[in-house]
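Regression test case RT-17, inverse folding.

Input:
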């Protein structure tokens, strides 16, 4: 429920303000770039921070006998207005140390003035300023609600910057960029809101009013050297905004120093401070807000503001894309849970299980039944429930998906008060040893409840099979005498965004080696790299098979093991050179070759070596790279791997190659190779190197246990430390 509140608040705020935020972000980006451009002209002297008024004013008074004022802008360019020794008008940037004229003051272009007006008021004068002010405040709420959603997604504030699970591009970068730019965006929003409040005089108005006792002034004072004035010696140019000069040699004409934190009136003859007025905190905050909001004082901050403004536009786009994707298969209830006869509890990591659950939910409603669908993490007491149907996938090695992690605790906390029929449907892939592992755990937990009555045995669905799910719908419908569709087509999810790819070459398997290599060419505009995934649909239905890509000579290279009756491997093996198929490439940036690592160790078993072969072939920068592989037996394929490794070693694109065989005479596992080189692995991690693991989940578990032992023994740190530091990358299946 809490997640829904934050999510809907975040969405509602964005919907209400997105047009104005898009306009403000676009104009803000242009103004930030203009702030950067303003700092490019060389009108700031190199020792500006060290120059005092006592050093610069005597020089300037000598060169320009009649000075009206000196002003210093946010770029620390010094502008002098007055007359030179020849009586010529001067209005120019000058070198405060020498008085040399550097250039004419830069005027803002009409375009920038137009953009500034649009940014501040939408050309609607005071009404526009109110609208912009309100939207600045809404941006604060959007940022804070977004932060709350990330905290909930990452399961706690401590894990705020932990790795984000990538479901799809828009979702992943919405979260990642949002975390990185949270502070800059909050600063933009808070400063913009404050400036709006200040503009409408909601804070006490401050007027500088100097009180000078003229009776104490000498009638015929003696002019002292201004270089000796104490106030001038203590005041640096960095503290000055403007200096107004006395018009004549009259005791009632003064220097007026307008500083950042105060304004001072100084006797022009002896340097005595005649009046001092400090600026109130509201004015100081307004100036600080203006500096932070515009980036006018710091080029680096201006660049950050430009990036943040561009990303606000991206957040608008990606946020709505996420919403539309979520609404495509959303939890929509006509009846409240406390009034419903049928409760559907869903556990899903990426939303695919929701599609199946929603199909059942809609059919129950069409049969005039009271049905309520919700996430497993929202489990509660259901006083009218007669049936609870759990439809859940499994994440990792038998773990709960992200929206089901609290279910076990909630089940113990909220026992039902009446007997309820229980049915569990598990979704997974038989390619994994823990097929539907979490669904089995859920059924075990439910059956143990005294109020639960087993209605149907656990039904498992392999690879989102619409046919298998329709079988369950038929059984459940027959038992309840409710008419549910048994046509698989109703439950199918069709793949989208497919492109044509062509088979170029394929090796053959033999009695001793069931592994083959297939080379595929993509379209000229298709971008991919080693570590990305190729998704194919062998039966032209919802069943998807993913293969890790190695990019070799600009083409996709897959290393595949042929399984008897295997849907994906059999399909690929039956392809011949010249054939085209439809597939899609999934970007997998979390498993790309590190660009800045000091060294990279690659660990693979079986066909998990595929992306590493491509990465090594692409290692043009000759980053120190080591490959550790584990196979069952020496085969023709492994001999090719040895030959490839030897060639890459000669090219200096591979430093070392280590291979283990678990079914040969000298039995050895890849974990043994790692443990034998324990000191080497520890040293690589210690100096900032990266370890990449690709292969089976079981291998990953064993390797990580070995690495954790090495890290704790040799570096006094756990493996999780290096994982959090981005030094351990995995892509296992």
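Golden output:
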């Amino acid at each position: 429920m809490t997640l829904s509140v934050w999510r809907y608040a975040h969405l509602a705020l964005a919907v209400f303000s997105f047009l104005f935020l898009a306009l403000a972000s676009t104009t803000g980006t242009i103004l930030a770039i203009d702030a950067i451009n303003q700092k490019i002209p060389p009108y700031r002297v190199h020792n500006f921070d060290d120059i005092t008024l006592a050093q610069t004013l005597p020089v300037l008074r000598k060169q320009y006998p009649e000075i009206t004022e000196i002003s210093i802008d946010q770029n620390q360019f010094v502008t002098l207005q007055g007359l030179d020794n020849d009586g010529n008008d001067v209005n120019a940037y000058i070198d405060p140390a020498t008085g040399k004229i550097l250039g004419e003051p830069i005027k803002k272009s009409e375009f920038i003035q137009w953009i500034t007006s649009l940014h501040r008021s939408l050309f609607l004068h005071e009404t526009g300023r109110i609208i912009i002010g309100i939207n600045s405040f809404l941006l604060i709420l959007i940022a804070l609600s977004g932060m709350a959603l990330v905290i909930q997604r990452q399961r706690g504030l401590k894990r705020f910057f932990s790795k984000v699970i990538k479901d799809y591009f828009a979702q992943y970068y919405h979260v990642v960029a949002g975390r990185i730019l949270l502070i800059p965006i909050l600063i933009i929003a808070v400063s913009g809101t404050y400036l709006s409040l200040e503009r409408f005089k909601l804070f006490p108005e401050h007027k500088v009013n100097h009180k000078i006792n003229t009776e104490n002034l000498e009638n015929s004072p003696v002019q002292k050297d201004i270089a000796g004035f104490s106030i001038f010696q203590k005041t640096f140019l960095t503290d000055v905004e403007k200096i107004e000069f006395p018009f004549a040699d009259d005791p009632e004409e003064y220097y007026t120093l307008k500083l950042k934190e105060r304004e001072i009136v100084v006797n022009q003859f002896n340097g005595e401070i005649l009046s001092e007025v400090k600026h109130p905190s509201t004015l100081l905050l307004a100036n600080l807000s203006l500096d932070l909001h515009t980036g006018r004082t710091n080029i680096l901050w201006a660049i950050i503001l430009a990036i943040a403004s561009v990303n606000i536009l991206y957040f608008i786009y990606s946020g709505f894309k996420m919403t539309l994707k979520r609404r495509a298969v959303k939890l929509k209830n006509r009846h409240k849970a406390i009034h419903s006869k049928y409760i559907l509890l869903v556990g899903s990591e990426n939303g695919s299980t929701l599609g199946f659950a929603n199909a059942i939910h809609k059919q129950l409603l069409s049969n005039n039944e009271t049905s309520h669908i919700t996430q497993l993490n929202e489990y509660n007491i259901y006083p009218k429930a007669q049936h609870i149907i759990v439809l859940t996938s499994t994440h990792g090695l038998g773990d709960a998906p992200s929206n089901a992690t609290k279910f076990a605790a909630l089940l113990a906390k909220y026992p039902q008060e009446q007997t309820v029929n229980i049915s569990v449907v598990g979704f997974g892939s038989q390619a994994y040893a823990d097929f539907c592992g979490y669904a089995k755990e859920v059924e075990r937990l439910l059956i143990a409840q005294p109020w639960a009555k087993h209605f149907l045995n656990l039904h498992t669905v392999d690879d989102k099979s619409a046919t298998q799910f329709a079988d369950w719908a038929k059984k459940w419908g027959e038992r309840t005498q409710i008419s549910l569709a048994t046509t698989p087509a109703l439950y199918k999810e069709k793949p989208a965004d497919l492109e044509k790819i062509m088979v170029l070459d394929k090796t053959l398997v033999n009695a001793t080696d069931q592994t083959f290599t297939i080379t595929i060419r993509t379209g000229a505009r298709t971008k991919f790299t080693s570590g990305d995934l190729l998704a194919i649909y062998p039966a032209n239905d919802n069943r998807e098979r993913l293969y890790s890509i190695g990019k070799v000579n600009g083409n996709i290279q897959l290393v595949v093991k042929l399984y008897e009756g295997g849907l994906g491997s059999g399909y690929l093996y039956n392809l011949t050179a010249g054939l085209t198929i439809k597939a899609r490439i999934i970007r997998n940036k979390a498993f790309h070759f590190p660009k800045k690592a000091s060294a990279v160790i690659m660990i693979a078993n079986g066909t998990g070596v595929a992306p590493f072969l491509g990465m090594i072939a692409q290692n043009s920068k000759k980053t120190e790279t080591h490959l550790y592989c584990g196979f069952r037996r020496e085969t023709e394929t492994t001999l090719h791997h040895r030959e490839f490794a030897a060639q890459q070693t000669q090219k200096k694109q591979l430093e070392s190659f280590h291979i283990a065989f678990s079914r040969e005479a000298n039995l050895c596992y890849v974990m043994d190779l790692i443990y034998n080189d324990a000191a080497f692995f520890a040293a690589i991690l210690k100096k900032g190197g990266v370890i990449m693991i690709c292969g089976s989940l079981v291998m990953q578990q064993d390797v990580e246990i070995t690495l954790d032992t090495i890290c704790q023994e040799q570096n006094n740190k756990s493996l999780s430390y290096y994982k959090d530091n981005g030094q351990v990358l995995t892509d296992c299946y």
